[in-house]
Amino acid sequence: MRTRTARIAGVTFAAAGAMALTVGPAFAANNAWVSGNLSPVANNNVSTVSGTAMAEVDGNTVTVTVAASGLLAGSPHAAHIHFAPDSRHACPTIADDKNGDGHINTSEGGPAYGSVMVSLTTSGDTSPKSALAIDRFSTAPGGKISYERGSITVTPELAKAISAGQSAIVVHGVDYNKNGKYDGATKSDLDPSLPTEATDPALCGILKVAPAGSMHTGGGGAAAGSNEGMLLLGGGLLIGAIGTGAYAKRRNNAVKA
Questions:
Q1: Does 245 have pLDDT greater than 70?
Q2: Are 56 and 32 in contact (CB under 8 A)?
Q3: What secondary structure letter does DSSP report for 187?
Q4: Domains of the chain, CATH where assigned
Q5: Are 41 and 109 in contact (CB under 8 A)?
Q6: Is the pLDDT score of 25 beyond 50?
Q7: Residue 35: pLDDT band by 50, 70, 90 thresholds?
Q8: Does residue 135 contact residue 76 with C-beta atoms inside 8 Å?
Q9: Can you tell me the distance from the alpha carbon of 196 to that of 186, in angstroms, rounded to the nearest whole number?
Q10: Separation of alpha carbons 171 and 51, rounded Å
């Protein structure tokens, strides 16, 4: 299946990756941890979905872990890190429904969470060019996603934004009519060859920074020191220590210290 490149608000995802990013004062990106709960996107008929995400920034590389449940099983779910300097660094609300159809599409969510900056593909390219590479995203077997990928290279500016708690994780793909597949007459705002169900956002969460002097919770995520119980979802899904690589290395170094 060919990789698709989509356009939002007149800017291609590929171009978005090259945008100049400004995040204010310098922030030490090395070994930063951020995490957050993923919540259903307002009015997108996904009230039973839930999830958690976590990221470790090490210089200009990022390791990302995502767990989610309640999604449409057996269908690709595009997932991304979103950011824009002028976004609200938040998840969309029903007030963002500009076309008045009662749902939030990806473009309408842009002012809240920004543009696609990293495509959380299972293999290959992770740039905005792969934003709709639907053959390389999780198909949510059993309605669940259990994802980890390390050594994702990002720009220094994006590393700072993630470390500062300004980025969002968004998981796409909804089933408005509950018939077990992506269909319907309304077409995607990103690619008119796809139904809007295939690209509308289902889950969104802001990757938060832990309060100073506290264990890292990321505004509801798990503590950085207990990776085995890292991702506890509202739907009862507990993801065990799926982080090996960077997460295990960091935890072992902490023990040695």
A1: no
A2: yes
A3: B
A4: 7-256 (2.60.40.200)
A5: yes
A6: no
A7: very high
A8: yes
A9: 6
A10: 10
DSSP string, 24-43: SS----TTEEEEEEEEEPTT
CA distance linking residue 35 with residue 63, whole number of Å: 12
Buried b or exposed e, range 82-95, using 16+ CB within 10 angstroms? bbbeebbbbbbeee
| Whole-number Å distance between alpha carbons of 207 and 217 | 10
Letter string b/e over residues 98-128, b meaning 16 or more CB atoms within 10 A of that residue's CB:
eeeeebbbbbbbbbbbbbbbbbbbeeeebbb
Q: How far is CA 245 from the centre of its chain?
A: 20
Over 60: is that where the pLDDT of 24 sits?
A: no
Report the 10 Å Cβ neighbour count for 192.
9
> 3-state class of 128 per DSSP?
helix
**pLDDT tens digits, 223-239:** 333 333 334 333 333 33
87 close to 111: Cβ distance less than 8 angstroms: yes
Residue 149: the pLDDT is 98
- Residue 63 tokens read as 């390791």
**pLDDT (tens digit, 9 = 90+) per residue, 140-184?**
999 999 999 999 999 999 999 999 999 999 999 999 999 999 999
**What is the arithmetic mean of pLDDT over 73-100?**
97
* Residue 210, pLDDT score: 74
* Distance between CA atoms of residues 85 and 131, nearest Å: 19
Residue 155 DSSP SS3: coil
Asked if residue 103 lies in contact with residue 188, where contact means CB atoms within 8 angstroms, the answer is: no
Tally: H helices and E strands in the chain: 5, 13
Integer Cα distance of 116 and 171 in angstroms? 11
